[in-house]
Amino acid sequence: MPIRHLVWFRRDLRDFDQAALFHALGESASVYTVFVFDTTILAGLPRADRRVEFIWHCVAELKRALRASGGELLVRHGDPVELIPRLAQELGITAVYCNRDYEPLALRRDALVADRLAGLGIDFRQYKDQVIFERDDILTAAHHPYTVFTPYKNTWLKRLGQADLDSYPVRERLARLAPCPDEPMPSLAALGFEATDLGALNVVPGMDGGMALLEAFGQRIDRYKTLRDFPAKKGVSYLSVHLRFGTVSIRELARFAWNHGGEGAMCWLNELIWREFYQQLLWHFPQVASESFKPAYRDLVFPNDEEWFAAWCEGRTGYPLVDAAMRQLNGSGYMHNRLRMVTASFLVKDLLIDWRWGEHYFAEKLLDYDLASNNGGWQWAASTGCDAQPYFRIFNPVTQSEKFDPEGRFIRRYVPELAALDNKAIHAPWLANSLPVGFRLGRDYPAPLVDHAAQREAALALYQRAS
Ligand SMILES: Cc1cc2nc3c(=O)[nH]c(=O)nc-3n(C[C@H](O)[C@H](O)[C@H](O)COP(=O)(O)OP(=O)(O)OC[C@H]3O[C@@H](n4cnc5c(N)ncnc54)[C@H](O)[C@@H]3O)c2cc1C
């Protein structure tokens, strides 16, 4: 019998520059492929979940692409710990190939799958794919993981060679996909989900969607550094969801930035390195998923006012930029990076609410939700994580608004009840000398939930007690 391999797709939903697929195709002339809608993850999600719909479309596109190359993507629904070994046994597979995932639950799942496969005499082979450098690739001179970004980045850049950016030429080998009878794809409803508003949002799933965004961003990458902090401007790439599900290749993105060069591209590469910094951090310190990276802040006692939390979630804190950002998140599943920092700082240091509450809320709502980056971002904002800055960096939500949305364009878009306020009043309506006729603060838009100056002092005292 010819050697048969099985490629298990997870967060790498593409048929190009894909490490596991490349290696499997190189080592067998008969390669099967599978994607599992994992019930252990799906069980905890609401029936209408934009991410599930996004993934569903990506899987459907990948299935079409692999079919067009003469293969078939088998799509299963269940627990991969049971399904993968069973399928491998049914198909007479020699080895299962997949790309590494560094999240604690994924590591546990993969260890169980590897164990079961070993019991059946089947190999489990894993590859680096979603990052340029992983795990112990970048260590300090003393062989410790980096816990501060800048030295990590410097070593990352020093280590980078052309080979790290080379694509895996998968497409040349796709003829080795095992021919299979066409299998229908389970519908969203069959998976227990319903369609969301994804189709109405400006989000195109799949490799096609990722490619279109990359091409468009390529035209404006030179302006990235100057525009990236202004949420009303089209400065950033919007590629995060595609990086999350692997419909773009990190090697392609980093190579593009590196070859393009210049301030804008290098600034963008810096952000891609932040992503890897947080990935390696989670891998080395998996405990950050549930507690502060800095031990001193593990016992911080936040007052956690539930009504304030609800106001933050719903975008009715009375701070226009914070509210606009939360409404962007709720309405689209995306939030601009500057605003993730502003809203996270506001939750923790103005409302004195545990960063994990916010982290959890973002995890539910973000289309690009990624445990490593989300946790890293929240711990950065809460000053509990890997950050050279001390806890007394506290964003002022009004000056952030004046600086990064000076004409209130972003606020007007998401908080239309403030549209008639002038460019000064819109950042802090309660301080305005005059408001438009007929507009009443507290009725048409909330009065501020808290006083920033007072809460700042309270936050400093809270952190000081723990330091
Ligand atoms: C509180 C908080 C929570 C966050 N949660 C997530 C999350 O769940 N998923 C996620 O992908 N990013 C998260 N980020 C990082 C960042 O906000 C998003 O990656 C970015 O806004 C996505 O938009 P973009 O693709 O247009 O980014 P661009 O500015 O175009 O950046 C390109 C890519 O670089 C990476 N990147 C950019 N900034 C960061 C950063 N600060 N940390 C890590 N990677 C970065 C992303 O992969 C991004 O797609 C979070 C940041 C904060 C402060």
TrEMBL record:
Residues 3-132 form the Photolyase/cryptochrome alpha/beta domain. Its cofactor is (6R)-5,10-methylene-5,6,7,8-tetrahydrofolate; FAD. It holds the Pfam family FAD_binding_7. InterPro entries: Crypto/Photolyase_FAD-like_sf, Crypto/Photolyase_N_sf, Cryptochr/Photolyase_FAD-bd, Cryptochrome/DNA_photolyase_1, DNA_photolyase_1_CS_C, DNA_photolyase_N, Rossmann-like_a/b/a_fold. Its EC number is 4.1.99.3. Keywords: Chromophore, FAD, Flavoprotein, Lyase. It comes from the Bacteria. GO terms for molecular function: deoxyribodipyrimidine photo-lyase activity. Belongs to the DNA photolyase family. This is Deoxyribodipyrimidine photo-lyase. It comes from Crenobacter oryzisoli.
